[in-house]
TrEMBL record:
Organism: Sagittula stellata (strain ATCC 700073 / DSM 11524 / E-37)
Signal peptide: none
Family: Belongs to the 4-toluene sulfonate uptake permease (TSUP) (TC 2.A.102) family.
GO cellular component term of the entry, any: plasma membrane
Protein name: Probable membrane transporter protein
Protein keywords: Cell membrane, Membrane, Transmembrane, Transmembrane helix
Main location: membrane
Family annotation (InterPro entries): TM_pro_TauE-like
Transmembrane segments: 12-44, 56-77, 89-110, 153-176, 188-209, 221-242, 254-275
Localization terms from the record: Cell membrane; Membrane
Membrane topology reported for the UniProt record: Multi-pass membrane protein
Amino acid sequence: MDILANQTVLIEIAAALVLAGAAIGFLAGLFGVGGGAISVPVFYEIFGALGYPPDIAMPVAVGTSLAVIIPTSIVSARAHNAKGTLDMAILKTWAVPVLIGVMLGSFIARYAAPEVFQAVFVTIASVNAVKLLRRGKSWQLRDTLPGPWVMRLGGGGIGLVSAIMGIGGGAVSNLFLTLHGVPIHRAVSTSAGVGVLIAIPGTVGYILAGMGKDGLPPASLGFVSLAAFALTIPTSLLTTRFGVAMAHRMERRALELAFGTFLALVALRFLYALFA
């Protein structure tokens, strides 16, 4: 009887991962995010249900999320670039600073308490959600992007925060770009490219940070669960292009409201986790 019960639980977990993959891919295309806002809480709940403590479940959820973001962000960035709205000049400016920030965030991940990950998630998602939903001119710092040094500092911060949150940086880079007058469609498209810059070194960093850690799930490479990765990827790649197509059909304000609502829900979810 116990064997049948365990098999049922494993089937339910596998089904949840497949569905999460579909949501991750769609969101990656729609909002220019890597889908980490979906995959991190889903992975966290699944590893928790399997009996892993928060100090293992949270970094594994974040590391696996970054691994999943690699292919989805590449597909999303290519699709947005084909629409002509991905700003390669911004990506070139951010490439090195983002890498430095990501590696620092991955190092912090080895020693940080799970509450640190959740608190960063709530803060960034909440600020961005309020900005997008209220859409006041007061939420715009200036009409143009800042100088190269401020841009580089911004890129480093985006990499650092995104690595701790386990996201492709879309929510953070979108906030930075729109605060400096970048139109929402261009910000979303460029944020998809940021996901590529963050996810690859972020995944490597989490693999290295988790090496030798006791109590990791089976089939893990550091803080990356290869089993969760394998179950999530197929549907995420299938749905990414649908998200891109919808993003470019939506009006600017509709896209802002949709993205803001999505981030607000994510913030509430992690706020609940902090105080539950």
